[in-house]
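Listing S7. Sequence submitted for prediction.
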Amino acid sequence: MIDRAPANAIVIGNGVVGLNVALALQRRGTQVTIVAPDAPWRGASWGNAGHIAVEQVEPLASLATIRSVPKRLFSRGGALALPAGAIGAWLPFALRMLVAARPARFRRGKAALSALLATAIPAWRRVLEEAGASDLLRVDGHFVVWETPETAARGRAAWLAADTGTARVRDATAAELARLATLTRASIAGAVRFEGSGQITDPTALGEALTARFIERGGTFVHGRARMVERDGRVTLDNGSTHAAHIAVIAAGAASAELVAPLGLTAPLIAERGYHIEGDPGDWPADLPPVVFEDRSMIVTRFADRLRAASIVEFARIDTPPDPKKWARLRRHVAALGLPLREPVEPWIGARPTLPDYLPAIGRRGGVAYAFGHQHLGLTLSATTGEALAALLHGETPAVDLTPFDLGRFA
């Protein structure tokens, strides 16, 4: 068993979840070392759309999602890619997802996810205020737009009827529609505006701010890949060195499953890969919230000096080579819309760590804790995950019940 107040901890992973866990432990007086194989912050923590998606309270493991699969396939113009060569990875995941989509389990998952998402923005405000970087969070909502009257009618009705948690959705005003129309050469047949969702204004600056705060509070980094984590909190790296602490926290994203397996924990993760392209923003307004072009399953976000277009849900192994056709599709969307994405345009691919029920894994076993599997909501939920897990490890009651996120659910 671990102490109620661990004096020191090792956090495996330097992404947005790992950094937030480390910072939350430091606030309670724990000395923290982060172990990670690379220094650059270039994974899914950096390459996402910057969207704080508190409206996404319904887990994607749902009967509605499953029914929509045929029309969403990449081969039919959609954003869902199921590569034939990766069937050994995505078919078992899909079967588990079918089980998780059963109505009773979906309702339980939605209740758990809703509770966690309700704490997301307040947690980010606390984290960024402490880091002296409050300006990196903008709670200004986002837009969803459609290009045809038919898709606008269906999409508007669906969103206005949906449960969106702490966010609210309304029709875009005439002034907002006129502004959106200036962004693209395509016609805008309809749009809604979400209020209460947010955006990180610069993911690079976010990583720098969190890292600087971690170091300022006495945190240290060990560059290496964790090979084994033992129940007593000892961590062995690829180079054979061993590091001991009162608690080891596995927050290694898509690489976490292999680390929890020797502990008797099942984590049926898949690397849900996303693609983006980005370049000079041209005249895209700096104060415009993210815009979702729903007909194209693409979100466009303006960061400090970049414009990013992101899309694609590709179920594959983490080491599967990128598919250039995905970037080409994004370029065609950008060109068709006439977006001011100027060369040189840079491509990116990253893996979202996803579990079949689309809930994260947050919990502990003895001297080992874990926080991973946040799928599309890693950026959104990382601050509140850090606070909740740190509270648990210090014998406090987390703000949210973590029982639904325990890996025991996959036993």
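Caption to Listing S7: primary sequence and predicted structure tokens for the chain studied. The chain has a mean pLDDT of 95. The CA atoms of residues 61 and 368 lie 28 Å apart.
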